[in-house]
Design goal:
single chain; mainly beta; Immunoglobulin-like; four-stranded antiparallel sheet; elongated; SbsA Ig-like domain-containing protein
């Protein structure tokens, strides 16, 4: 008979205890890891909900995954009895089961993910996880710009354009827009107030038309009320805060723009008074025009064209620096012709409504010029 030494017995016992501890620790840590990271919740649109397969019974993927993973609208402390789960698509890969709703999760709405997960004792335990996709902070709604944006405008300026960052609610414009003088006194009769306001199709641009009766000399409204804008004086267009957007979800921040008023413009435009800086042949340099007066900003986008010497229109991009009365045209392709033609639609108006055919505030009996366009020939460097 062989007897083990007491020290050997103690050593074997210690070794067995250590191995048992390691096994227990391994099992526990594996289970803890599975439980800690079993469910993955979405943080952005388009992401699915998923659960680790090792948290589910072995037959889960061959059965009905909806029995172990379901999603409800609402909050955790009111879930999930008598509620119908959200319909969606279930699928799985080697390690995880996934759920993706047929319709995207709505930002700002609370959802509850209900899972039934296997315990170390091979029993099912229900877990509830609540989540919400954070709604993006809406951009502030504001007036991007006003045209004319020059600080100095003629007293017979006919139109103003307001550009908004979002489509705005129509038919309430003059609840928020007003013209005031230097003392802050409002002129309620300055603008034409049409039944249908003058909006662009996307409701991001509003045209404000001054009452022509306040502009034309000798007209009853002008005689009774005087001009809305007077040379030598200062005015401000104010857009009050609170104007709702078209969808009603946001309101406009306040805006104002100040003008100093110059003498009225009552002469026909003349292209020969424009200072033209020609580009170099073979370059993509812009052709630059400095006007002698302010022109209608919107019409400048469409009523000036350039043609090659053989009559083909030149494609390119238009840009305006209204404050400095500058128009630029950058060609899509390099300049090829030594001689080009600047063609201006006779309907192009300055800010006072004068075009190449007629002065807006013309004396009675004056005849309109019967022209469709005016041209100026340009030699490139």
């Amino acid at each position: 008979m062989i007897y083990a030494r007491p020290s050997s017995i103690v050593g074997m016992a210690n070794a067995m205890s250590t191995m048992l501890f390691i096994v227990i620790l391994y099992v526990y840590s594996s289970f803890a890891h599975a439980q800690a990271g079993t469910v993955s919740l979405p943080s952005a649109e388009g992401q699915p909900i998923s659960i680790a397969l090792n948290a589910l019974p072995d037959d889960a993927i061959t059965g009905n995954l909806a029995d172990y993973l379901s999603v409800f609208v609402g909050i955790k402390n009111q879930c999930c009895e008598q509620l119908t789960p959200i319909a969606g698509h279930y699928y799985h890969d080697e390690t995880r089961a996934y759920f993706k709703p047929y319709f995207e999760f709505v930002k700002g709405q609370s959802y509850v993910v209900k899972t039934k997960e296997i315990t170390p004792a091979q029993k099912l335990k229900t877990h509830l996880n609540e989540f919400m996709l954070t709604a993006a902070t809406p951009k502030a709604v504001k007036v991007m710009k006003i045209q004319p944006n020059s600080a100095l405008i003629p007293e017979n300026t006919l139109r103003f354009y307001l550009y908004f960052t979002q489509p705005m609610k129509p038919n309430v414009a003059f609840n928020y827009i007003k013209l005031v003088n230097a003392e802050g006194v409002e002129d309620n009769a300055a603008f034409m107030k049409f039944k249908q306001e003058l909006w662009s199709a996307d409701r991001k641009r509003l045209t404000l038309l001054m009452d022509p009766g306040r502009i034309k000399r000798g007209v009853e409204t002008n005689l009774e009320l005087g001009p809305a804008l007077e040379a030598g004086k200062a005015y401000k267009i104010i857009v009050k805060a609170g104007w709702p957007t078209a969808n009603g979800n946001q309101t406009l921040a306040g805006f104002s723009h100040s003008y100093q008023i110059n003498n009225a413009l009552r002469t026909l435009p003349d292209v020969n008074k424009w200072k033209i800086t020609p580009p170099k042949i073979g370059s993509l340099q812009p052709l630059r025009i400095q006007f002698d007066r302010l022109f209608d900003y919107q019409l400048l986008q469409s009523e000036i064209s350039l043609f090659s010497s053989d009559g083909n229109e030149i494609s390119g991009k238009i840009s305006n620096d209204e404050e400095h009365q500058i128009w630029q045209f950058t060609p899509k392709k390099q300049w090829r012709n030594k001689h080009i033609v600047l063609s201006v639609n006779a309907k192009l108006e300055d800010v006072a409504g004068n075009n190449f055919k007629d002065v807006m505030d013309h004396p009675v009996g004056d005849k309109m010029h019967k022209i469709d366009s005016v041209e100026r020939h340009i030699a490139l460097d």
